[in-house]
Amino acid sequence: MKFTQSCLAGLSLAISTLARPAELLGAAGSKASNRDVASIGYATMNGGTSGGKGGSVVNVASLAELEKACAGAAPAIIMVTGKISTPGKIRVGSNKSIIGKDSKAELSGVGLFIRNSKNVIVRNLRIHHVLAKNGDAIGIQGSTNVWIDHVEVSSDKEHGKDYYDGLIDVTHGSDFVTISHCYIHDHYKASLVGHSNKNEAEDTGHLRVTYAHNYWENINSRAPSLRFGTAHIFDSIFMDVVDGINVRKGAQALVENDYFSGSNKPLYTVDSTGFAVHKGNDFGSNTTATIPIGTLKAVPYKYILKELENMKDELPDIVGNTLSF
Predict the structure, then answer these.
(1) Which of the residues 126, 222, 227, 248 is marked catalytic?
(2) Owning domain of residue 226
(3) What is the pTM of this model?
(4) Residue 115 CB: number of other CB atoms within 10 A?
């Protein structure tokens, strides 16, 4: 996995609550269990997120096998054993864990569509170049308790901004979602929370999303873009993200201990007012947050802020599909 090295220079923040990064995230290539449950953020709430734990383990190596394994609501642990490159859009049912067996697990042009589902885990996959006709790389609509962890999502910026859709979009009143340890890169419109200014009735009181320990790179906008909901964004790096965290339509964000380099607008609101509490961030030279102070001063789950001095060396080896099972 390649990263721009300049983005990691000068990472140093004083943080009151500290933990060693290796204790939180694990080293690259570390062994994980396909029965792991969500351990961070909003996905730990509302009864937690266990995915297919307790169900059968199914190995898949083709689009047809993946589609069959993801159907229905019966618990299943779905292990992707290699590269699947037949383009398509996979509907994901409730109580599923979709896991890449190792770093070779890849969905090329294949989008995952989590709609009206509950209790879904997606881990350790590389998902890329999903054409707009096949939806987002990962689309979450009307779903609750979803954990996206150690996933690499990308496309390219060589085509128009509508050639691809989103990388990880959370819409239609989805709730209790965590996006953690992901490498999100090379894309125009990366991650949308709340799809329309006209969807207030469905979204208000929902769209609670945690973004933790993520690496955003070479993104034009929506890193993320928030409407109506609540987002906790912490311990992440934003490198060459033109327009970063956009909070609007009354959304509330808590933004902590994030590092920005090469961003024109790291944290802002536009068109309709959103709010944020921000602390311990490095927004880069000659930039600052341009947003009213919000009311989200705390979140209802436990978390530990990392000691960012060490992350300049450790983060590139931690995010994305770096686990093995």
Answers:
(1) 222
(2) 5-317
(3) 0.92
(4) 16
